Each structure stands twice: as C-alpha cells, then as structure tokens.
Amino acid sequence: MDTHDPMPPVLDVAGLRTMFFTRQGLLRAVDDVSFSVARGEVLAVVGESGCGKSITALSIMRLVPSPPGRIVGGSVTLDGRDLLKLDEAQMRGVRGNEMSMIFQEPMTSLNPVLTVGSQISEAIRLHQDLSRAAAADKAVEMLRRVKIPEPAQRAREFPHQLSGGMRQRAMIAMALACNPKVLIADEPTTALDVTIQAQILELILRLQQDLGTAVILITHDLGVVAETAQRVIVMYAGRKIEEADVGALFAEPLHPYTHGLLASVPRLAIMSGQVQAAQERLQEIPGMVPPLTNLPTGCAFAPRCRFADAQCRAAFPPYTQPRRGHWVACWHSERLYGAGA
Amino acid sequence: MHSTEYDSELVKAGASAQGAFGQTAYFLRRYPLGAIGAVIMALFVLAALFADFITAYSPLSTDAALSLAAPSRAHWLGADYMGRDIYSRIVYGARISLAVGLGSTGLGCALGVVVGLVSGYLGGWVDLIAQRVMDILQALPLLVLALVMAAALGPSLWNTIFAISIPLIPAIARVIRSNTLALRELAFVEAAQAIGMSELRIAARHILPNTVAPLIVLATAQLGAAILTEASLSFLGLGIPEPHPSWGRMLSESAAEYIRTAPWLVIFPGLAISLVVFGTNLLGDALRDILDPRERG
C-alpha cells in the first residue's frame, strides 16, 4: 500500500487462499485475500454469513479444521515472520501469545468444569514462565482490567455462574493476558444483547488503545463497524471486494455490493416515515449468495448486480484504487454514481 | 391465601447447609436413596478394612463339632459344613469382593479412558483401529476368557481381576469416546487451541474433566457388576481359589447340597452380594445427579 498509513503493518496477509476439499467439490472459502493491520489499528472485516470472514481469521491463526480444509497459498506475516512456514510447535507459541482470538460464543468458549481463574492462568502459564500463584494473581489482575467486579471472587467461580457478558469479558482477559500484538475478534458481540454489546466493544477499544494491540474485528454488523473500526474490508464469496477507511466506505462505497449492503441498513428516517412512501420499503440486494462450491467465473456478485455485463461474467476484476486508500474490485464502480443514481 | 414459605423453601434448596453437619443433613434430605447407598458402601468398606477387629473367629479355622451349625449367639450366622463361622467368612469375603471390584473397575477404567480419549479426540485411522480392537474384546465371552485364564495360569486373585476388567475396557472406552466426540466440537476446545495449547494437553486437561461425571457413574455401576461377576466366576470355580472366603464360592459350595438342610449357608452370602450391588447402584444414581456441575452451588 502507499503512504496511506504511517505505521508499519504488524500483520500482513498476502494472497491468502484457503480451500475445503469436500465431497461436494472444491470449496474456495478464502480466495486471494490480502490486507494488513498496523499497530493500534482496528480493521473490520464485514460480509454476510459464509463469505469467508471466519475462515480468514482461522487461517491466520492456522486453526482451519484439516481435513477437509487447507491453506493452499499466500503468506501471513506477523512482525516479519511468515506464520504459514512455522511448524506446529512454533505456531502454538504464537497463538495466545503474539496473536489471540476471541469467539462468538461466550457461553461455550469456557470449559464448564474449570474455574474461570484457572483457565486464564493456564493460558498465561502456557507462554510465560510464572509460578502457579503468580499466574493466578495475574489472572485476577486481568479480570480487573476487563472490569469484572470482585475479580478475586469471580476467578474462583465456574463459567456457568457468570453471565454472557461477563464470560465474554473473561474471554477477552484470557486473550489479552499475554499482551498479544494482534487480537482477532470473531463476532465478539453477536451472541450478546445490545447494551452489553456496546460495553464489550468499548472495553475492547479501550484495552486496544492501552496495550497498542492491532485488532481484526470480524462482524456482519455495520453499526459496530462504524463505531469501532478505522479501516474496513468487505468480503463477498471468499474474496475481498473493497477496502477503505471507514468514513470513505460509509460515505461513498465503490462496490455495488457494499452499496447494496449499506442501503439495506434500516435508518431512523425510514422507520419514522420521514421519507416518501416509495422509498419506505427497506432496500434489499436481490438474489442469494452463490454456493461456494459452484462460484461463477468472473465476479461472484455479477448474478445479483444491476451493472453486470459480459466482462463481469468473464473475469474477476483487478483491484483498482479510484481514490487514495480506497481499493475496489469492480469493473464498473464508476457507474454507481455516474448514472445519476 | 397464598403465602410463600420463604424460609422453608430456602431450607429445601439447601441455602442453610453450612458446615459438615449441615451439608450431610442436606445431602440426606435431597438424596435419601443415595444416602442409603452410601451407608451400605461405607459399611462394606469398613467391614473389609477392619475385618480383624469385628470378627471373633478366623474365617479359615475349621471345627468338626460345628459342622452346619445353625445361627446361634456364638455363631451369629451359623457355620458351614467344615464348621467355619459364616459371619467371619462374609466379613473377610468383603475384602476379596472389594479388591476384585476396585481392582478390575480401576484397571478397566484406566485402559478404557486412554483408549476412548485417544480414539475420540484423534479420530481417523487411530479411531478405526481402536474401535475394531474394542469390538474384538467385547466379543470375547467373559466366562470363556476366565476359564482359559484359570486353566492356563491357575485361578488366582490377579487373574480374576484381570479377566473381569477386560470386558469393562470397551464399555468405558465407548462412553468416553462418544463424549469426546461431542466435546471436541465445542467452542472451548477451539478457544484452547487459540491460546496455543497442544492437542494432548487439551485432551487431558479440557476433555477428560468433562467426561469424569459419566465415568464415575459408569464406574460405580460397574463396581457392582464386577463384584457380581466375581461371585459368578467363583461360583463356577474359576475365581478366587479355596480357602479364601469369596461370597460366590460360599454360595456354590452350599447351594446344591445344603439349601434345604442349612439354608443360612446360602441366604447370608446371597444377601451380602445383593446388598452391595444394590448399594453401588443407589450411590451411582445419586452421584450422577451430584456430579452435574450445574448442581454445584
């Protein structure tokens, strides 16, 4: 990328390809995805279910279930080291230490038969040479940092004694216990109710600023993206189709899919009937995401796109940069606004 | 008028259970059958441990004058055809039963857990081979196995324990494997991988503790079954050799010949076997409820 971001990237993903070899055929879950995250930056990855967001995250952590999945190409460079070239033991030293991940399901991400504190101190002791007691103290300290009241008491409790929001906090404490360079948050707030969502996001952001962690936030919630991220990647059918600063993306999306996605977000003006009746119906993107085992050649969005022509169906468009720091993979992105829409 | 009796409801829920006494009282109220089972098992274990102190006669000493003596004040449960005190033999027999029960259940569990855990967590060809070996073990008839072992190695305590533990291995391995298969798909396994934990450690530290509850329940049930099996094997003359007092052998020696003339020779060992098996089953059921972590306060 150009001079756009001043910080050198801490994590650089280039040409990542992950495929699943299934009975139904070859499934291109992640196809030629490249991006980088700088220290202290929040990068959002958005897209609908099955677009490859989570598999991208698992590929970076090298946790893709294998078989049937396999990373077939590309590189994942963390601080100058290509993670895809490490052996499994070296990779274990990276996971949870230099790079952590939190998951969507706080209810099941903690082991029900072990206390919360023991699970966090276990994560610490995997990577740091601390005594049992020192690790336990650090676990309590981490619980305090994630704003769990009475951390010493909570550390002795079992996961079922904590609420969903508390458990997600505990997961964050575990993920950040070794002060990783990169935190991957895979839909961290999807399973929580709205008020708790806001608290958890705020917590992630504050800790991220305190610790200087780079965050990759995977979500399908555009509201979350607008509130938290500096940069956004939009994925569709396993490919990155657009990447931009969050302001630019929301103000002027350059891919018809992103445009449709933003238009389909309910807005207060529409819901309160302040616009004309003709526009009152929420916009939608016609059609369905094509099955990943049977993607069309060319642009996967072409069958649903009103600008699609023969060129779109023949070849996947190259990444262009119509505006500085705003990348898009579309043959016809200029038509979005040029046609007087 | 509906008035909720808050205090009595709280007492029922165990809120006031404090200290060892309160906890025990709560346990008794909550699991009365389990408590009966626990008492039976405690008596059984105590009898085995303190057999020397609670019996007046050696279980092996014979006395021709007492042959087939009926229960009396001196010999509470009577004496067998060799004049050996039945009460002493039952108490000492508890040692054999306990040793065989614990030994074979322990051995079977240890091997079964390892096979089940490895087989379920690793899957693939390891699972395939392990499960076929389990099929073979399960297909071996226990009595034939015990017969061959007794014939080849001579009947002994260790051979009996080993023979009884063999069919336990596939039973335990199956349960552990199916639990492991379900557990390894749960998010906390993925979370453990994401903090950099090795597969072996995940299996031992995260999967195994989650299968302990079903394992303990199964093991208590198997404890009763193992004691019963030992009695059957000894009944057939394949188990514990003479002169050691085994409940099963006591039955087999007397059943055919003396059931009419001296029924106490059959009734009391039979009662002992039934009582212990009954106790393990009651205790196992209560343990199943208690070990559910959601029940823990």
From TrEMBL, chain A:
It comes from the Bacteria. Keywords: ATP-binding, Cell membrane, Membrane, Nucleotide-binding, Transport. The keyword Membrane applies. This is ABC transporter ATP-binding protein. Belongs to the ABC transporter superfamily. It is found in: Cell inner membrane. It comes from Limobrevibacterium gyesilva. GO terms for cellular component: plasma membrane.
UniProtKB/TrEMBL annotation, chain B:
GO terms for biological process: peptide transport; protein transport; transmembrane transport. GO terms for cellular component: plasma membrane. Pfam families: BPD_transp_1 (PF00528), OppC_N (PF12911). Keywords: Cell membrane, Membrane, Peptide transport, Protein transport, Transmembrane, Transmembrane helix, Transport. Residues 94-284 form the ABC transmembrane type-1 domain. The chain crosses the membrane at residues 31-51, 96-121, 133-151, 157-176, 215-241, 261-284. It is a multi-pass membrane protein. PROSITE patterns: ABC_TM1. It is found in: Cell membrane. InterPro entries: BP-dependent_transpt_permease, MetI-like, MetI-like_sf, OppC_N. The keyword Electron transport does not apply. Belongs to the binding-protein-dependent transport system permease family. This is ABC transporter permease. The lineage of its organism: Bacteria, Pseudomonadati, Pseudomonadota, Alphaproteobacteria, Acetobacterales.
